[in-house]
Amino acid sequence: MARDVDLADKREAYVVRAVVRAARLLELLRTSEGGASLGELAARSGLAKASVFRMLRTLEETGLVERHPDDDGYRLGVRCLELGQA
User: Fold this and answer.
1) What are phi and psi of 71, to 5 degrees?
2) pLDDT of the residue at 5
3) Crossing angle, helix 38-45 and helix 49-61, to 10 degrees?
């Protein structure tokens, strides 16, 4: 059993938490009908608004997230569809 715990610790050492958090935001957007606001995403993810904003800006830059101009809400970008079809 101790060996299993050691292996799990070693695997976790290679996990980039920021990528895990960004993936969580993408999943939250996937399950949000019509998108979600910055505040909603921060509340649902348990992350600070400033952190969520920076991650969303980065995801927006890559095309994975789009900001809706009418209500400043966020939704999945076209790039997610392209990746899903690949």
Assistant:
1) -125, 10
2) 64
3) 120
